[in-house]
Amino acid sequence: xxxxxxxxxxxxxxxxxxxxxxxxxxxxxxxxxxxxxxxxxxxxxxxxxxxxxxxxxxxxxxxxxxxxxxxxxxxxxxxxxxxxxxxxxxxxxxxxxxxxxxxxxxxxxxxxxxxxxxxxxxxxxxxxxxxxxxxxxxxxxxxxxxxxxxxxxxxxxxxxxxxxxxxxxxxxxxxxxxxxxxxxxxxxxxxxxxxxxxxxxxxxxxxxxxxxxxxxxxxxxxxxxxxxxxxxxxxxxxxxxxxxxxxxxxxxxxxxxxxxxxxxxxxxxxxxxxxxxxxxxxxxxxxxxxxxxxxxxxxxxxxxxxxxxxxxxxxxxxxxxxxxxxxxxxxxxxxxxxxxxxxxxxxxxxxxxxxxxxxxxxxxxxxxxxxxxxxxxxxxxxxxxxxxxxxxxxxxxxxxxxxxxxxxxxxxxxxx
Length: 416
Fold this sequence. Notes:
Blueprint: H1 2-17, H2 25-33, H3 39-52, H4 60-71, H5 76-92, H6 97-106, H7 112-128, H8 130-141, H9 148-164, H10 171-184, H11 190-202, H12 204-207, H13 214-223, H14 236-253, H15 260-269, H16 273-276, H17 281-297, H18 302-319, H19 332-343, H20 349-352, H21 355-384, H22 390-415
Helix pairs in contact: 1-2, 1-3, 2-3, 3-4, 3-5, 4-5, 5-7, 6-7, 6-8, 7-8, 7-9, 8-10, 9-11, 13-14, 14-17, 15-18, 17-19, 18-19, 19-22, 21-22
Family: Belongs to the API5 family.
Keywords: Apoptosis
Protein name: Apoptosis inhibitor 5
């Protein structure tokens, strides 16, 4: 009881002093000491230390340490009150913001109700001092293994919301946020890279076209392919990273950013026949679709197109037999991508004069012409059955997609 009375007396002494409050150092020291006392004094210390913090700059370090101790207290009411008070300490002592933001970031590891309190305090501090909080999140949170998931969750939710709802409006802070994400992209997982890319495309800077160096961003996406592990075409994770890099790059290509860096990666590591042969049929279809889309939308240089022509021509020769009566099966989904890409390269006379390609085009023309008739009849038969169940609907969709692929191939090779 005596300890509680001492805390109350110290509180009254400082309050009654008014403008002379800074002179009552011993009284404030008494309040700080309460953080190490009984349950009752801890509750009072959690309330009173922040109340008078601004009056005693010489005691800031002791006061902050006292509040930090209370943030780890076993009593939830004490712990949560202390956590809630941390942003006010930064408001009255901005020089301590980095230190306090770092502790709040560490406290993201707490669970349940405590985590909600921590997130609220960190969000309040984000509004007060956005640059400092963002710096801590990316230097301490993202780099810490234990903290990483909780920090990513805070960034993708609370931080993004602060910008989206215009709680944080400074363009320089938004640019700082984007730059921090760019730097972090050098060592992130596929899902984290996609999260950062999505956030960047949601920023006002990106939407208004004010964000510079989109070419550098596309290079970051390509560098991600080999950022964690060496490239290995037989490793499904390597192929997945290529597809992720390509998917994220597409919006940049639509903004007149060149796909040359991505195309060069393909030309070196994927499209050479000895490499391509190691892929599964499903992987081949995916990477060829991505490559075709990149050529179509990525403003490739003449040098990139010329190199692409030879590689794609070799793959078409590998994929399609020269004679119609060959027993070699044709993967038309892959062939569609190849002929679509080759169609863009028809300005290269050397490519068009290749006898092995001419033979393949002739064979494809005949094959697709024959199969289109069969596919059309199959669609007609499947569509005539009523009522249609889920299996029939799926069959019709598959046949329609197959018909589209064959039509695309037939049209292109007919004109070649």
